[in-house]
Automatic annotation (TrEMBL), chain A:
PROSITE patterns in the record: FAD_PCMH
Record's keyword terms, sorted: Oxidoreductase
One Pfam match: CO_deh_flav_C
GO MF term set: FAD binding; oxidoreductase activity
Species the sequence originates in: Prauserella flavalba
Name recorded for this polypeptide: FAD-binding molybdopterin dehydrogenase
Domain FAD-binding PCMH-type: from-to ranges: 1-222
From TrEMBL, chain B:
GO molecular function, one term: oxidoreductase activity
SUPFAM superfamilies for this protein: CO dehydrogenase molybdoprotein N-domain-like (SSF54665), Molybdenum cofactor-binding domain (SSF56003)
Descriptive protein name: Xanthine dehydrogenase
Residue ranges of domain Aldehyde oxidase/xanthine dehydrogenase a/b hammerhead in the record: 24-133
Length: 329, 735
């Protein structure tokens, strides 16, 4: 039987020491990704460092931002009064994700690092998967790929980053706080993830053994309206086909600021900067929304199963821009 | 005595008698059983869909901790294929040779001391393959086909002439995907040999069939095999066959001389225990200008395993659905490198009903006739093929009551004419004529000295309420309160009863229970015939009825006696009677035995930009003959309709077109409806007791599913003007 070592340090230095950057070691938070992949035989660590006892839980106000400890659960963050009042897009993205049981276990740090749902990746019986076995090919590009990505992908890998809340957080310019053997650093979330590119096995810039300690979420100005729309086949408990996190600052009939994240489409949580550019200093309305949506999906790379997502993503964004712009400020 | 005729048409909603045991975790499901000293199995499955095994290296697995044995085609002797069953052939024997016929085929069974050890060692089995390009598609020119597989192809009149004479014709092709039965309970087998005696706890819907199969395969008398399935975590047809993994577990237990337990994993449930096969159907309809059907042609093709059979006549049901002089139905199966299909709740009719009732909606539209009116003009008031009156048929009432409850008269005729914000709104309907099915059954009823009854047969309760309705029925027939009746089911040692499937068990076993209870009363009367101490002395069956824990004269309520008093006076600990039932024969009845009828009325909302489809209302009216228990029957219809919603909008087993691997074999990826997808459902029963059986029941287990997908597709058309002829209806088709 495959055995592994399990340790549960009580503070961050001990955790870092227990991990020590060893390639056969992995951190364990809520386990909803990590343990699933171990049961499926995709991950086979020799040692698990359980980080759930580290003092990295809770939500604190720091100036104009919220500092969210990496071990805060999805449910806890969604229930936070400031998040409820000032960051509806975050709250909605959280509550439309997974199920309540999962959200009670799943942590924010783990959510950002969740692995793709690609069923070819998650079945070691499939030989061709560049993400799992670099250089082996990609079985999904010729397969039924309805749940795959269209932005930041290539024939080497079309896997989707399926997090909902990360889509809202990239739109908000959240910052990830990291501690590692070399000390702390912080990385804007927009620079944290990397596109599939030529090395699909590399998903982010976190060093192996580094810990996410907190996520800093800038609060939106009082006047900003925001929301998250998730489009999927069934009403709940499903990943997004497409989604849009939108925050708009509208003043005197003009969009002063726009923040847009797209889900269900990217190899990483997708910040639609080009669409924001179109909207900035424009009056809200169907034509400009459509123009922004076109800009958002330029460069889409599709396979037969994902073709519909180009149009669906545009319509999702247009709908959410319309909805948010009509919300009373 | 008390007869079935005195039962109400719709029986009282007695709560499930097994509810408390189930909610308290006391009801034991197949995988809850353990045997002392048991070992655990784990399967290794093929990762190619077609070809040969060139080598199996089991050395690492055999050397792994706890491993007792690794069974492969190299060390398992040829096992005989199971026998012919009442539902067709048994699956081919497992591990026959080096050939691979589908992805996920079992290629080895690893047995170890613990499940974890077996699972880990199974990953160490190295299998070499020589792969060939698999046949996966209905249209693959290399595929062999089977025409008229069940001899059900039918023809009456002249369809071409009927079409030529029609003022309006429609013609369309409909496709349905593979669906997977997906009972929540993982299928499991626990096999224990004691010399030549074999006891098996199996996730089966048919204990007596598994017993016969195992006796045949392992060369022991049926009487030395006992198969138990007292509770099952659902089946939906997956439990209607003795699958290869069952045979393997029993074989391993015999070889290792210790009990072996094998529980499938969820992904294995997609390849090991059947599925509803994908298919394509072509329908042509013709009608006169006033909406009388003049021609129905229905051709169906479905996918079949390379070397196994499956009952899936998509088209056959269309021969009897409507009064129509010219009808042609043709069914064909296409052999491919896919896992074996199996009957899944409402087999064939689920798919056939989608095509026919969609086509009827298209015809109504072409005729500019109300779709309900079109159905009413074509109701088959007599059996359209036999020309005989039905034993019961309240289809017209289903339509009338459903239309009234749903508010059909307020529906605008024109598609895409209602909206609610972003949502386009539409309403539509479908009719259902479900076929009659019944198998013979035995049952036994016993009253013990303490005045309790034990009633049973080998049939099992798949979760539908068989324990409950038979408790109610027996209590009523024996004049006992339900608390004093205990049902024994799901044990092949009990009198042989048929499968829980085909909507036939309540009718078959219920009729046998009725017979057994009747005979048991006769036996009591026999006992007191010459008994001077009995107030019932000399009574004939028609003079008495069962009441208050015993028997009393119809003409004199004071002349009565309880069972316990009779048994005590005669020094008996119990009295038993065996009962039986046989299916009605149309020729003898002079009538055509009817299955259930029904009508579904559905409202959907479709997001005009995003294509999201939500079912917002569903009204279903069912003629199920006599309903023994309002509540369990309603639950059956609701469950069936939810299955229909799943089929319409979500369920889609996806096969990788290159490898033949099922690409979404988990509950995260294979979508079934969640609560939020299900609207409030309005279910009503109409009709009268059916005349084909003494009980007057007709099965209600499947009819609730049939036609729902068509009603939803029709409602999507009514909402949007877009006709979707391929299931599931997902938003991509509506963008
Ligand atoms: C059935 C199902 C449905 C789901 N649906 C959704 C959905 O709709 N939307 C959505 O957004 N998500 C969904 N998820 C994903 C879920 O949100 C993630 O699995 C979860 O957030 C991961 O958090 P965790 O604490 O369980 O992480 P773990 O599983 O413990 O860890 C995940 C990964 O992150 C690493 N890790 C965790 N914490 C840290 C840290 N602080 N520092 C460094 N590394 C760390 C671990 O080593 C591991 O590699 C679903 C999951 C499941 C199983
Ligand atoms: S899409 Fe990416 S994760 Fe999926 S099979 Fe291809 S390489 Fe692997």
């Amino acid at each position: 039987m495959r055995t592994f070592e399990y340790v549960r340090p009580l503070d961050v230095p001990d955790a870092l020491a227990a991990h020590a950057g060893d390639t056969a070691t992995a951190y364990l938070a809520g386990g909803t990704t990590q343990l699933d992949l171990m049961k499926d035989g995709v991950l086979e660590p020799a040692r698990l460092v359980d980080i759930t006892r580290l003092p990295m839980r809770g939500i604190f106000t720091e100036g104009t931002a919220l500092r969210v400890g990496a071990l805060t659960t999805m449910e806890e963050l969604a229930a936070d009064p400031t998040v409820e009042r000032r960051l509806p897009l975050v709250r909605e993205a959280l509550l439309l994700g997974a199920s309540v049981q999962l959200r009670n276990m799943a942590t924010i740090g783990g959510n950002l690092l969740q692995r793709t749902r690609c069923r070819y990746f998650r079945d070691p019986g499939v030989a061709a998967c560049n993400k799992r076995a670099p250089g082996s090919g990609c079985a999904a590009v010729t397969g039924p790929a309805r749940m795959h990505a269209i932005l930041g992908v290539s024939e080497r890998c079309i896997a989707l980053h399926a997090s909902d809340v990360a889509v809202a957080l990239v739109a908000l310019d959240a910052v990830v706080h990291v501690e590692g053997p070399e000390g702390d650093r912080s990385v804007p979330l927009t620079e944290f993830y990397v596109e599939a590119g030529t090395r699909p096995e590399v998903e982010h810039t976190l060093g192996h053994g580094e810990l996410i300690t907190a996520v800093e979420i800038p609060r939106l100005p009082e006047t900003t309206r925001s929301g998250y729309l998730k489009v999927r086949d069934r009403v709940s408990y499903e990943f997004a086909l497409t989604s849009a996190a939108v925050a708009l600052d509208i003043e005197n009939g003009m969009i002063r600021d726009a923040r847009i994240g797209l889900g269900g489409v990217g190899s990483k949580p997708w910040r639609a900067a080009a669409a924001e550019e179109v909207l900035r200093d424009a009056p809200p309305g169907p034509a400009v929304f459509r123009e922004a949506a076109e800009a958002a999906v330029t460069g889409a790379w599709t396979v037969p199963g994902t073709e519909f997502k180009v149009e669906l993503a545009k319509r999702t964004l247009v709908r959410q821009l319309t909805t948010v712009s009509e919300v009373a400020p | 005595m008390s007869t079935a005729r005195e039962l109400p048409v719709v029986g009282p909603a007695l709560d499930r008698v097994d509810g408390p045991a189930k909610t308290a975790g006391q009801a034991r499901y197949p995988s809850d059983f353990d045997a002392p000293g048991q070992a655990h199995g784990a399967l290794v499955q093929s990762t190619i869909a077609a070809g040969r095994i060139t080598g199996i290296d089991t050395s690492a697995a055999e050397a792994a901790p706890g491993v007792l044995a690794v069974f492969t085609h190299l060390n398992v002797p040829p096992l005989p294929r199971g026998p012919m069953t009442g539902l067709g052939v048994s699956p081919p024997a497992p591990l026959r040779d080096d050939r691979i016929l589908h992805h996920g085929q079992h290629v080895a069974l690893v047995v170890a001391e613990t499940r974890e050890q077996a699972t880990a060692a199974a990953r160490l089995v190295r299998v070499g393959y020589a792969s060939v390009e698999p046949v996966l598609d209905l249209d693959d020119p290399r595929a062999t086909t089977v025409d008229d597989p069940w001899g059900l192809d039918s023809e009456r009149g002249d369809v071409e002439a009927g079409l030529a004479a029609s003022a309006v014709r429609v013609e369309a092709t409909y496709t349905t995907p593979d669906n997977t039965n997906n009972p929540l309970g993982l299928f499991s087998t626990l096999a224990a040999w004691d010399g030549d005696r074999l006891t098996v706890h199996d996730a089966t819907q048919w204990p007596s069939m598994v017993r016969e199969t195992l006796a045949h395969v392992f060369g022991v008398p049926e009487t030395s095999v006992r198969v138990l399935s007292p509770y099952l975590g659902g089946g939906f047809g997956a439990g209607l066959r003795a699958w290869p993994h069952v045979i393997l577990a029993v074989h391993a237990a015999r070889e290792l001389r210790r009990p072996v337990k094998l529980v499938l994993t969820r992904p294995q449930m997609f390849t090991s225990v059947g599925h509803r096969p994908k298919g394509v159907q072509h329908v042509r309809l013709g009608a006169s200008a006033d909406g009388r059907l003049l021609a129905i042609e229905h051709r169906g093709r479905s996918l079949l395993a390379a070397e196994d059979d499956d009952y899936e006549p998509f088209a056959a049901g269309s021969a009897v659905a409507y009064a129509c002089p010219n009808v042609l139905t043709r069914d064909q199966q296409v052999r491919a490198n896919v896992p074996a299909p199996v009957s899944m709740r409402a087999p064939a009719h689920a798919q056939g009903g989608f095509a026919l009732e969609s086509a009827m909606d298209e015809l109504a539209q072409a005729l500019e006739l109300d779709p309900l009116e079109l159905r009413l003009r074509n109701v088959a008031d007599v059996h359209p093929a036999l020309g005989l009156p039905w034993t019961s048929n309240a289809l017209r009432e289903c339509y009338a009551v459903g239309a009234e409850r749903f508010g059909w008269s307020r529906r605008p005729a024109r598609p895409r004419s209602q909206r609610d914000g972003h949502w386009l709104v539409g309403q539509a309907m479908a009719g259902v004529s479900y076929p009659w099915y019944q198998a013979p059954s035995l049952a036994r009823a016993t009253v013990t000295a303490d005045g309790h009854a034990v009633v049973g047969g080998s049939g099992m309760d798949i979760g539908t309420g068989t324990y409950t309705v038979l408790t109610q029925l027996s209590a009523r027939l024996l004049g006992l309160p339900p608390e004093r009746v205990r049902l024994e089911l799901g044990d092949s040692d009990l009198p042989k009863a048929p499968q829980a499937g085909g909507s036939g068990l309540t009718g078959a076993l219920g009729s046998a229970v009725h017979d057994a209870c009747t005979k048991l009363l006769d036996a009591f009367l026999d006992l007191v015939r010459d008994d001077p101490a009995s107030p019932l002395r000399g009574s004939a069956p028609e003079d008495v009825l069962a009441a208050d824990g015993g028997i009393r004269r119809r003409d004199d309520a004071d002349r009565s006696e309880t069972y316990d008093a009779i048994l005590a006076r005669h020094g008996r600990r119990e009295l038993s009677a065996d009962g039986s039932s046989t299916p009605a024969r149309p020729a003898e009845l002079g009538m055509a035995p009817a299955g259930a009828f029904g009508a579904h009325f559905v409202e959907v909302k479709v997001d005009e930009d995003l294509g999201l489809v939500r079912v917002s209302r569903l009204t279903t009216v069912i003629d199920g003959g006599r309903i023994l228990n309002e509540k369990t029957a309603r639950s059956q219809i609701i469950g069936g309709a939810i299955g229909g919603i799943g089929m319409a909008l979500f369920e889609d087993t996806i096969t990788d077109p290159v490898s033949g691997r099922i690409a979404n074999a988990t509950f995260g990826d294979y979508l079934v409806p969640v609560h939020a997808d299900i609207p409030a459902m309005d279910v009503t029963f109409v009709g009268e007791p059916d005349r084909a059986s003494p009980l007057g029941t007709k099965g209600v287990g499947e009819v609730g599913l049939v036609g729902v997908a068509a009603a939803i597709a029709n409602a999507v058309h009514h909402a949007t003007g877009i006709r979707v002829r391929s299931l599931p209806i997902t938003l991509d088709a509506l963008l």
